[in-house]
Amino acid sequence: MTGLDHLIYAAPDLASAVGDIEKRLGLKATPGGRHPQWGTRNAIVPLGPDTYLEMIGPDDPVAPRPTLFGIDRLTAPRLVTWAAKGADLPSLAARARAHGIDLGAVTRGERARPDGTRLTWDATDPFADRESGVIPFFIDWRDSPHPAASASPTTTLARLHAEHPESERIAALLRALDIALDIRPGPTPALFAELHAPAGAVTLR
After folding, report:
1. What is the pTM of this model?
2. Which candidate among 83, 166, 195, 202 keeps its CA 20 to 30 Å from the CA of 157?
């Protein structure tokens, strides 16, 4: 999908979620790193040279759950949102506001990979409420290596679509952001990603 940077699969227990995804896909995920500012840790599965699946959950299973991506409210892992590639994010956020979409402030994030490589990025606010995650936040990796380049991809994204009870309204908002996401009527906002992996076709939602 043009413009997709990564899918975000959040979990109340990261180790359990990673183990389940590895079994379903038939591969080993790549350890990502810690996000001290959010209290989270991640692991990734590359889906191409600049696209990946991010599995994210609490860094410390004993501490109170982090609020990022609604992790504190999750009872099971799920595909909570996605990130789109962006540039000149302040201008993009201003354009979104003109169409009634609040992407929040542009902030700087960082984490260190296990090999010591430090990644930095700019992103619109991942905490902002964007139609329950159907509308993406935007990310610019600046001069950092893209996380998907940390391992050779063995899995591809075959299809991504969303459901929403107000699908026509959401489709108009996505068009305003130049996002071509297949969106269909559904009872609740949801994302569905079909992955082709060593173990076969797997659909995450």
Report:
1. 0.96
2. 166
Which has the closest alpha carbon to 9: 188, 190, 198? 190
Backbone angles phi, psi at 133, to 5 degrees: 90, -5
The string of pLDDT tens digits covering residues 98-119 is 999 999 999 999 989 989 999 9
Q: Are 13 and 21 in contact (CB under 8 A)?
A: no
Closest CA to 46 of 146, 159, 179: 146
pLDDT at 201 (0 to 100): 98
Q: What does the buried/exposed string (b/e) look like for 88-101 if buried means 16 or more CB atoms within 10 Å of the residue's CB?
A: ebeebbeebeeeeb
CA atoms in the 13 A half-sphere facing the CB of 25 = 26
Contact of 65 with 13, CB cutoff 8 Å: no
Reported as half-sphere exposure (CB side, CA atoms, 13 A), residue 68 has a value of 21
Distance CA 118, CA 144 (A): 8
User: Cα(11)–Cα(200) distance, rounded to whole angstroms?
Assistant: 23
Q: What's the fold here for domain 4-151?
A: 2,3-Dihydroxybiphenyl 1,2-Dioxygenase; domain 1 (3.10.180)
CB 18 within 8 A of CB 10: no
